[in-house]
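Fill in residues.
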């Protein structure tokens, strides 16, 4: 009986996510709808435990309609796999913007504001306990800070619905900073993902 109840709640949540996605597919809320190939709504698996928020779709994401494809996506998968996570089982992935900014420029404030209702809805529907803020754009959008990612990565912040949020490096940044020496961004990412795994395992 309890299992059925859990499944029926999850079905309601999936239905709610699908309704938001449907709205996104036809969204003209900012100018990015004019240049997008596909919206990139989400990846991974909808769940209540962990969500990763990235910045905005890049070229390959726009082409495929999926978040984190290409080299950055492959590196993200490696980072996750290093502590036994996979996007098929452990996390839901979405972005601050659902459409690609031309030439991969930073999102404009008006684009972030226009798209925020979709991100807020994804968070409110799933109520994840852990939210990973992948890169500067996502960290700034969710924390309302302008501090550099190197200063805030690896720290826990209080998030919506009593969640814990941690800014982490974007895999694109790690591709540009290849050193694995102690204290390097890659080394720090390794510390952060182990801390995330530890907290994940302590949660129900
Ligand atoms: S980026 Fe967001 S607000 Fe802008 S058109 Fe796409 S879905 Fe709509």
């Amino acid at each position: 009986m309890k299992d059925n109840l859990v499944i029926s709640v999850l079905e309601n949540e999936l239905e709610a996510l699908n309704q938001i996605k449907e709205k996104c597919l036809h969204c003209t809320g900012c100018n990015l709808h004019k240049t997008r190939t596909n919206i990139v709504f989400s990846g991974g698996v909808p769940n209540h435990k962990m969500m990763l928020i990235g910045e905005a779709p890049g070229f390959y994401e726009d082409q495929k309609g999926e978040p984190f494809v290409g080299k950055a996506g492959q590196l993200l998968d490696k980072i996750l796999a290093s502590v036994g996570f996979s996007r098929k089982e452990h996390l839901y992935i979405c972005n601050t913007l659902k459409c690609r900014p031309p030439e991969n420029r930073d999102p404009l404030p008006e684009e972030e504001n226009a798209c925020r209702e979709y991100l807020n809805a994804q968070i409110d529907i799933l109520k994840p306990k852990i939210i990973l803020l992948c890169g500067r754009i996502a960290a700034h959008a969710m924390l309302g800070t302008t501090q550099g990612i190197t200063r805030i990565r690896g720290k826990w912040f209080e998030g919506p619905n009593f969640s814990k949020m941690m800014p982490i490096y974007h895999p694109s940044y790690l591709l540009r900073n290849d050193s694995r020496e102690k204290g390097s961004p890659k080394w720090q990412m390794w510390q952060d993902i182990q801390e995330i795994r530890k907290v994940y395992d302590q949660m129900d």
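Residues 2-202 form a domain with the Uracil-DNA Glycosylase, subunit E fold (CATH 3.40.470.10).
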